[in-house]
Amino acid sequence: MTRVLYSLCGKDESRPFSPHCWKVALALAHKGLEFVERPYPFTAIANIEDGFSKTVPILRDGDRLVRDSFEIALYLEEAYPDRPTLFGGEGGKALSRFIESFSQMIVHMPVTKMAIMHIHDMLDETDQVYFRESRFERLGKPIEELAAEGEAERAAFASRLEPVRRTLHFQPFLGGDSPLFADYILFGALQWMRVTAGPPPLSQDDTVLQWFERCLDLYDGLGRRVVAA
Amino acid sequence: MTRVLYSLCGKDESRPFSPHCWKVALALAHKGLEFVERPYPFTAIANIEDGFSKTVPILRDGDRLVRDSFEIALYLEEAYPDRPTLFGGEGGKALSRFIESFSQMIVHMPVTKMAIMHIHDMLDETDQVYFRESRFERLGKPIEELAAEGEAERAAFASRLEPVRRTLHFQPFLGGDSPLFADYILFGALQWMRVTAGPPPLSQDDTVLQWFERCLDLYDGLGRRVVAA
After folding, report:
1. Any idea which fold A90-220 has?
2. Which InterPro entries does the entry mention (chains A, B) (predicted)?
């Protein structure tokens, strides 16, 4: 096996939780490419592949090393053009950046606040120290303070996904009749929540939750294999 | 000339303002298709082409009549496959629905509040009565009350466009190196604001405003030909 997805975990290797790594796991499955996943703690990432990248995902594909989830998806699309497409053409490639931006700017911060203490508690002691410090540096607040804002985020979460909900009125996946990388981008954010803090706060009859469940079922339940927190 | 875009205006026919009609105007120009635009007041739409549609845009293309901006773009893509693509493939088609949903759910309401009194004042008396009643029915508030919320919307407007801003960090248009229908969707919302209430409240160094200016320049300044209010 020459294909390795380096990803992120806490003390329990069987519960990888990085949103960006989940995007790549589904992208690889979408292309029908076998891979082994090797999850590392935060503070061990710098040692992967001789310090190739400060962040995961990292993909080793034979002789090639690629970092960054979007770059990896672009790489897979180019390297495996005969496998099912991740973008559905050049327009899909460009517009997937907008989905990524929506996910990063609108979905990631609420998930961070809802999940941050849960993530902390999943880490070993070395990672806990790193996590506290790096999040304070990035977000300007102690993780307890961010977590305290999580309750309000739970109440507002469904409304943030209105553009997704309206899109799903027209089609079963963001990518149309079947999923594209754009779906995996948003899936990654909700799966990050699900694995660390439990199911996203959406009602059972919400079409966004139904879409998420469909994504969990893809590729023999690749996402569902990790039980919800 | 057998190609007609039926659109929307107030008392001044030279200032069509419907966001959805602007999308189609740019889509036609993108395809290099000549057309004449025939703007009608709200209360005259029901008479266009023997009552073909309750809303504009309506496109007459020879024998064909098509309604709804997205449907018209899909029609043009199918009818004129040898002209420049509006979607860049099937993925772009599907993901353009997400851009449309973002524009409708995140951008249209603030523009409505910022522009509603200006739109009212552009209309003739018959349309003013219709506009007041239909907006009350749709939005549950008198237009004066909606307009009063406009100031707060001005202050928050730039932040609503964060996902657009981040996308433009990677590429000059939502569609990539050159514009696609996705760009015209968002352009339509900002042009609606510009023609009725003046330039969107974005700072000069905002990449979103710079993108909007690039869109105004497209096709010999098709959008710029109507001066800002």
Report:
1. Glutathione S-transferase Yfyf (Class Pi); Chain A, domain 2 (1.20.1050)
2. Glutathione-S-Trfase_C_sf, Glutathione_S-Trfase_N, GST_UstS-like_C, Thioredoxin-like_sf
Could you tell me if the ipTM is greater than 0.90? Answer: yes
Tens digits of residue pLDDT in B72-125: 999 999 999 999 999 999 999 999 999 999 999 999 999 999 999 999 999 999
Q: If one looks up domain B90-219 in CATH, what number appears? A: 1.20.1050.10
Residue B21's pLDDT band (cuts 50, 70, 90): very high
Interface check for A47 against chain B (CB to CB < 8 A): the answer is no
Taking residues B163-176, report their average pLDDT: 98
**What single-letter DSSP state applies at residue B187?**
H
- What's the rounded mean pLDDT across residues B221-226? 98
∠ CA A77-A82-A85, rounded to 5°: 45
Chain A within 8 Å of B33 (Cβ-Cβ)?
A: no
Q: Cβ(A26)–Cβ(A219) under 8 Å?
A: yes
8 Å CB contact of A105 and B167: no
The residues, ordered by sequence, that sit 6+ positions from A140 with a Cβ below 8 Å of its Cβ are none
Q: Starting at the edge strand that comes first in sequence, how are the strands of the sheet with B36-40 ordered?
A: B36-40, B3-8, B58-61, B64-67
For tokens 């029609």, what's the residue? B75
CATH 1.20.1050.10 in chain A, residue ranges: 90-220
Nearest residue in chain A measured CA to CA from B96: A95
Distance CA A48, CA A77 (A): 24
Distance from CA of A127 to the nearest CA of B (A): 30
Amino acid identity of B138? R
Instruction: Give A2's pLDDT tier (boundaries 50, 70, 90).
Output: confident
Looking at beta carbons, which residues of chain B come within 8 Å of A207? none
Which segments of chain B belong to CATH 3.40.30.10? 3-79
CB–CB contacts below 8 A, A to B: 134
Per-residue pLDDT, averaged over B117-135, amounts to 98
Q: How far is Cα B32 from Cα B172, in angstroms, rounded to an integer?
A: 21
**What integer best gives the mean pLDDT of chain B?**
98
**Fold (topology level) of A3-79:** Glutaredoxin (3.40.30)
**A106 Cβ under 8 Å from any chain B Cβ:** yes
Residues 69-98 of A with CB under 8 A from B: 85, 87-98
Interface of A with B in 161-220 (CB under 8 A): 162-167, 170-171, 173-176, 180, 182
